[in-house]
Request: fold
Amino acid sequence: MIASSSARGAVLGLTAAFLWSLTGVSLRFVEAASSWQMIAWRAVIMGAVIAAYLVLRYRGGAVRAVLAIGRQGAIGGVVLGIGFTCYISAIQAATIANASILTALVPIAAALIARLVLGEVLAPRTGLYAAGALVGVGVMVAEGIVVGGWAGNAFALGATLCQSTFTVMMRGGRGVDMVPAIGVGCVVSFALSAALADGLAVTPRDLGIIAAVALISTLLGNVAFVLAARHVAAGVLALLTMAEVVLSPLWASVFVGEQPTRLALVGGAIVIAAVLAQTLEAARRPAA
Reply:
C-alpha cells in the first residue's frame, strides 16, 4: 500500500515517464508513415478512445464532463496539441541533442509557471534535484550540441513551454476529471498534423504500430500524468517525468542496437540519481 499522496503521485509520474519512453523505440519499427501521419493517426485513435470513455462513464453527461475542465483544461489541451507539433518540428530542424537539452528545462519552467499561476512554491531540495537533472541531460547530449539551428531551437523551446504549461494546468484542475483535456489535445494535434501531412494513407502494419503507441504509450502515459498532478506539485511532477530522457535511449540500446556513449551513461546516471532522490523524498512524506 502506498503510504502517502506524494508517494502515489511519484509512482504515477514515474509510470507516465516509463510509458512515454516506449514511444521512440516503438515508432522505429514504422516502415513508411511520415512523422506527421503518425501524429495524425495517433490523435485519431486516442480521441476515439477518450470519446468512448466519456460516453461509457458519463453517458448523457459526457458533454458536461468536457465542459467541466474549464479554462485550465482547455488551455492545457491546446498547449498539449501544439507541443506535439513543436517537438516533431524541433527534431526535424535541430539536433536531437539540442532539442533534449531545451526540453530538460521543463521542471524549472513548470515550477516558475506554477509559482505565478497557482502560487505553488517549489521546495529548495526539489529545485536542486531539477538543476541536477538538467546538468545530467547536458552531459548526456554534450557531444551532439551545436551552435545555430535557431528555428529548431525555437520549436524545442516552444515544446518546453507547452509541456510546462500543460503540467501546471493539470495541477490547477486536479479537482475534476481532466482526461477530456487530453481529448482537446488530440483535436488540436490532428488539425495541425493533418495540415502538414502529405496525405493520411498508411499501411495496415504501420497503423497497427501507431495504434499500439497511441493507446499504451501516449494515452495511458498521459492519463497517469493527469492523475499524478492531483498528488504532487507541478515542478516535482515535471522532474519525475525526466526519467523518460534516460529510459528512451535505454530501450533503443536494448531493442534496436543503438549504443549510448560514455557521456550518455554518465549523464543518465546523474538524471536517475536526481529523480530517485525526489522519489524517495516523496515516499518519506506522511500521508495527506
Q: What stands out?
A: The two ends are 14 Å apart (CA to CA). The chain has one domain: 5-284. DSSP finds 13 helices and no strands in the chain. The chain has a mean pLDDT of 87.
